[in-house]
Amino acid sequence: MKTLLLILLLVVIVLAGALFFYVHGISAADPGNKEKIQITVEPGTGALQILNQLDEAGLVNNTMCGKIFVRLSSPEEIQANTYILNKSMTLTEIFDAMNTGNPKYISQSKFTVIEGATIPQAAEAIAKESGLSEEEILEKWSDRDYLNKLIDQYWFLTDDILNKDIKYPLEGYLYPETYFLDSEDPDIEEITASMLDKTDEVLTPLKDEISNKLDMSVHEFLSFASIVERESLFEDDRPMIAGVFKNRLDQNMALQSDITVNYALDKTGVNVSIADTQVDSKYNTYKYKGLPVGPICAVPERTMEDCINYEPNDYLFFFATEDGDVLYSKTYEEHQKVVEENRWY
């Protein structure tokens, strides 16, 4: 009888321990952490796939317990949507929100800043979805007190953005991405923080390579990468074009990028006149050697990586034909001949 009671006691202890382990495993991953995390559930996504998404986002306390929870609860009514969650939520709360489509956790709207977009274009995209005006967004993004606060908060923002010759201080620093708004009355500071947080996420792993491989500051690097982004029509061309611009920098030649001239003139396209190249702007890479005073557009991660891993070459000039081919030249004479034979604008 004593042996039986001992066995029963051990079973109870083991079961209680297992239950405690399970309950703890499906509890909040980080109680008290209200940082917003976006999770998009596509139509037809299964519960285990969603659990993997949650795990990758740091929302699962214990993966094994999470799998047991999914098996036991069999959530079958999960609604496709974009959810704004946080690490203080338990798995029960998360899956309840997804099963019911709780509007408290569903993103209200979204905006997209496209790759190569300028600050005015970003402001326009946000204004269309947020209820904020372009004017108040641009005013906030040029407020020096606010900018100084951001400089204190983000390692990659420096006093370089306060240069009086820069058109838009945050140009190149607001990462191009689709962002979801979780409020019907969003705050521009919250929106800006989410964009800068994404930039931080992308730039931090590249920090040492930017310094060691390119010998550039982050501001110089984003200025360099933004030119490559706007000058490259196709992904395959970027490493080579980055190499050409790196050659010109290394030889202390003017970059002579038409894109930077048009940015100075608030124009789009690639065509510039001789008169255009005379504009007195620190963005004019015909008039001023080296990099422009600041970035000229938003740069995606892949362009940053292509610039860091640029393709070494002997070329100093390139010309894009009408069908998208890029022709490279080592001398100005060769380049002029290529332009004369292939000019299309």
From TrEMBL:
EC top class named in words: lyase
GO MF, one annotated term: lytic endotransglycosylase activity
Biological processes per GO annotation: cell wall organization; peptidoglycan biosynthetic process
UniProt-annotated site: Important for catalytic activity, residues: E231
Keyword match Disulfide bond: no
UniProt keyword Lyase present: yes
Domain of life (superkingdom): Bacteria
InterPro entries reported for this sequence: MLTG-like
EC number: 4.2.2.29
Signal sequence region: none
One GO CC term, this protein: plasma membrane
Catalytic activity of the protein: a peptidoglycan chain = a peptidoglycan chain with N-acetyl-1,6-anhydromuramyl-[peptide] at the reducing end + a peptidoglycan chain with N-acetylglucosamine at the non-reducing end
Alphabetical keyword list: Cell membrane, Cell wall biogenesis/degradation, Lyase, Membrane, Transmembrane, Transmembrane helix
Protein name listed in UniProt: Endolytic murein transglycosylase
Lineage: Bacteria, Bacillati, Bacillota, Clostridia, Peptostreptococcales
Gene responsible for this protein: mltG
